[in-house]
Amino acid sequence: MKKVLILTASFGDGHNAAARSVHDAIRLTEPGADVRVIDVFENAYGPLNTAMKVGYRAIVKHAPKLWARMFRMFDNPVAFQRQIKSARRLHRVMRRLVEEHSPDAIVSTYPVYSHVLAALYPTISTRRFKLFTVVTDSISVCSAWYLAYSDAFIVPNRQTAEVLLKNGVSGARVHDIGFPVNPKFAEPPKLDPPIGKTTPRILYVINTGKALVDDTLEQLLNLNPTCHLTITTGRDTALRAKLTHRLSSFGPRVKVIGWTDQMPQLLMSHHLLIAKAGGAIVQEAIAANCPMIINQVIPGQEEGNAYLIQSLDAGAVAEPAEVPRWVQRAFANHAQLWGDWRANLELASRPDASLLIARFIRDALKNVDAGPVLSA
Fold first, then answer.
1. How far apart are CA 221 and CA 239, in angstroms?
2. What are residue 208's phi and psi, to 5 degrees?
3. How far apart are CA 283 and CA 277, in angstroms?
4. What is the number of other CB atoms lying within 10 angstroms of the CB of residue 77?
5. Could you report the per-residue pLDDT of 312-327, keeping only the tens digit for each?
6. Where do the structural domains in the chain lie, given as residue ranges?
7. Which CATH architecture describes the domain 189-348?
8. Secondary element (H or E) of residue 294
9. What residues contact residue 261 under an 8 Å CB cut-off, 6+ apart?
10. Less packed terminus of the chain by CB within 10 Å, N or C?
11. CATH topology of domain 3-184+351-365
12. Residue 81: partners with Cβ closer than 8 Å, 6 or more residues away
């Protein structure tokens, strides 16, 4: 493997998380590879892209119904293609990046880029690279992911593969390898079950979803008096300070941290995750065999992520006010429900998916049979 260009965008955490994981996995499996992660929108639009990211976060946080309408626009081929054709700066920057780097492979973790590449290089003969599309959504997959050509579509699970197959994508190009989580998930440490002297450990992730403004946390701690709670607040330093002060009466049972790059270690060392149905965090929870209670679902792509947890019987989807009772239920009767969830996750987990994807790309560039091909 010589040169690999990994394309991402900062509209949601899943795209960047997938891109970084594929990058790290290629570095581990092919130390000599020239592999780079590039946010093409950032390169093309600079300060405007920053404003678009802020706008995206504001919409999904405060106006999820508006985002649902925007998601439907992306899922409308005519409207979507109209938007792609008008993004001339994006086309120019993409062409420049391809010409500068001359990649052997392009890995796209954002659905827009395959359409731009299709416009710039309309036939296979005009491409000097292989294109791999890593689909970061599950089940509720926007058609923008698969309506443009890609040499391979790498999907996180069988249910998502079936969506592509039903919509006409050739089975020879659909590869059910898994979601590329951080390679650190490939060797999870042993976690004792939350029974007997082992204290239940709960991870509560706060990100672009609703800020905690009610007494959910106090209810959770009071209803589960033996549990320990770790709360991550991302880069919201004001919220971190507020929660640290507000929950100080619970002493060492509560730990509030800000942004962290230790999410694999946190998930693998906690018994239960409480978070919104983001694409990356759901897949990381599955990789870590960490049951999940989803407390918010943004309409559109997150609906599929929530359904995935429910279909696996690996957790619950609940309104914020219902979360404390679900936690109590999970750990009741010697953690019977938690044990069922955990066992189901162990059957579905693919903690080494990023390493498998890296090897798949390497082998595909060598023109050998690279991985599982699904028949239509």
1. 18
2. -80, 5
3. 10
4. 11
5. 999 999 998 899 999 9
6. 3-184+351-365, 189-348
7. 3-Layer(aba) Sandwich (3.40)
8. strand 292-296
9. none
10. C
11. Rossmann fold (3.40.50)
12. 115
At residue 310's C-alpha, the angle toward residues 304 and 313, to 5°, is 145
Which residues fall within 8 angstroms of residue 279, CB to CB, at 6 or more apart? 12, 13, 14, 136, 137, 138, 179, 301, 302, 305
Confidence class for position 370, pLDDT limits 50, 70, 90? very low
Q: Are 200 and 230 in contact (CB under 8 A)?
A: no
**Confidence (pLDDT) at 313:** 98
In sequence order, the 6+-apart residues with CB closer than 8 A to the CB of 103 are 3, 4, 5, 129
Cα–Cα distance for residue pair 152/131, rounded to 1 Å: 7
**pTM of structure:** 0.89
d(CA 249, CA 143): 49
- How far apart CA 35 and CA 363 sit, in angstroms, is 16
Following CA atoms 63, 65, 67, 71 in sequence, which dihedral angle do they give, to the nearest 10 degrees?
Answer: 180
How far is 332 from 314, CA to CA, in rounded Å? Answer: 16
DSSP annotation of 143: G
Are 3-184+351-365 and 189-348 in the same CATH fold? yes
Q: DSSP secondary-structure letter at 235?
A: T
Q: 67 pLDDT exceeds 70?
A: no
Token pair recorded at residue 44: 């093309």
Helices 301-311, 279-287: crossing angle, 10 deg rounding: 20
